[in-house]
């Protein structure tokens, strides 16, 4: 299954103080299983990720910690930073 | 990084924390970068080193045999096969390592990271396969060589008077 794309919004870049958006490729494994009563009330788990991003203005790396939610039937296997979507400077 | 168009239905994630890269993560990043870059040359250097080592094992083996066997020992036809097996295995493994070291043709575009990744993985997998085969044969050769040498030592009493 191909990774689903999601987007991360960095409101204040530690390098240039600008706003950037990056595309993430979230690889999830879909588990097919019988639905039980407890699954109906299952709370989504918050999975912590730390990824490195490159500031498009200063061309320097910084890190961001973010949380993605998954469930027992929709486990996150991997999250990759695909590339920059937009930044303040590019939109102007 | 390349610019990507955002789709309307894409969920937007907001980070919990944004900071400079921590020294630990920077060190890990550098380690990962060197692993990624050097993984091709590691396989190539191993094949290169083992080609010479496997070839060099042949005279070492014969020198050991010469030391162990009596001076007036004459090889019979069935002994030839028996004594030559390790040397043939060393030669075969050396050839396999040389084939692994042999350059291959491929084309890639630096604009397409997926293509670079594919070529890189293909080169590593190919060298890994040849290295594994070559080393297995070399290892069998060493095992048989040691066994033959010890057996000869026991039969002809090379170390005892």
Topology:
The complex is a heterodimer of chains A (92) and B (161).
Chain A: E1 4-10, E2 20-30, H1 37-40, E3 45-54, E4 61-70, E5 74-87, H2 88-91
Antiparallel strand pairs in A: 1-2, 2-5, 3-4
Chain B: E1 12-13, E2 17-20, H1 23-68, H2 77-101, H3 113-156
Helix pairs in contact in B: 1-2, 1-3, 2-3
Question: How is this structure best described in words?
Answer:
- The complex is a heterodimer of chains A (92) and B (161).
- By secondary structure, chain A is mostly beta strands.
- Chain A has one domain (4-32, 40-91).
- Helices cover 9% and strands 57% of the residues of chain A.
- In chain A, the strands form two sheets. In chain A, strands 1-2-5 form a three-stranded antiparallel sheet. In chain A, strands 3-4 form a two-stranded antiparallel sheet.
- The longest helix of chain A is centred in the middle third of the chain and has 4 residues, at 37-40.
- Chain B has one domain.
- Chain B contains three helices and two strands; from the N terminus they run ββααα.
- Chain B has helices at residues 23-68, 77-101, 113-156, and strands at residues 12-13, 17-20.
- The model of chain B has no long low-confidence stretch (mean pLDDT 85).
- Chains A and B meet through strand 1, strand 2, strand 3, strand 4 and strand 5 of A and strand 1 and strand 2 of B.
Question: Main traits of this protein?
Answer:
heterodimer, A: mainly beta, 3-stranded antiparallel β-sheet, 5 strands, 57% strand, elongated, B: 161 residues, mainly alpha, 3 helices
Short summary:
Chain A is mainly beta and 92 residues long. Chain A has two helices and five strands.
Question: Tell me about the biggest sheet of chain B?
Answer: none
Oligomer: heterodimer
Overall geometry of chain B: elongated
Reported for the largest beta sheet of chain A, the result is: 3 strands, antiparallel
Estimate the helix proportion of chain B, in percent: over 70%
* Morphology of chain A: elongated
Quote the distance from N terminus to C terminus of chain A: 37 Å
Overall structural class of chain B, as computed from helix and strand content, comes to: mainly alpha
The largest sheet of chain A has its strands arranged as 1-2-5
Question: Total number of β-strand segments of chain A?
Answer: 5
Helicity level of chain A? under 10%
Largest interface: A-B, 34 and 22 residues
Q: What's the total helix number of chain A? A: 2
- What's the helix count of chain B? 3
């Amino acid at each position: 299954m191909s990774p689903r794309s999601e987007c991360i919004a960095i409101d204040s870049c530690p390098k240039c103080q600008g706003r950037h958006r990056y595309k993430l490729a979230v690889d999830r494994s879909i588990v097919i299983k019988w639905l039980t009563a407890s699954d109906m009330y299952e709370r989504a788990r918050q999975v912590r990720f730390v990824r490195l991003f490159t500031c498009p203005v200063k061309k320097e790396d910084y890190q961001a910690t973010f949380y993605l939610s998954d469930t027992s039937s929709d486990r996150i296997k991997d999250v990759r930073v695909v590339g920059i979507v937009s930044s303040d400077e590019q939109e102007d | 990084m390349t610019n990507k168009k955002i789709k309307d239905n894409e969920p937007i994630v907001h980070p919990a924390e944004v900071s400079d890269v921590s020294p630990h993560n920077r060190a890990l990043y550098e380690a990962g970068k060197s692993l990624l870059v050097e993984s091709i040359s590691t396989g190539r250097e191993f094949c290169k080193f083992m080609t010479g080592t496997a070839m060099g094992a042949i005279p070492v083996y014969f020198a050991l045999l010469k030391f162990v066997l009596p001076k007036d020992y004459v090889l019979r036809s069935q002994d030839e096969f028996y004594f030559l097996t390790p040397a043939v295995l060393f030669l075969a493994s050396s050839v396999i390592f040389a084939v692994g070291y042999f350059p291959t043709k491929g084309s890639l575009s630096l604009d397409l990271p997926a293509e670079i990744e594919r070529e890189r993985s293909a080169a590593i997998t190919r060298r890994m396969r040849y290295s594994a085969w070559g080393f297995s044969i070399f290892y069998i050769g060493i095992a048989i060589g040691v066994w033959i040498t010890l057996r000869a030592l026991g039969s002809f009493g090379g170390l005892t008077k």
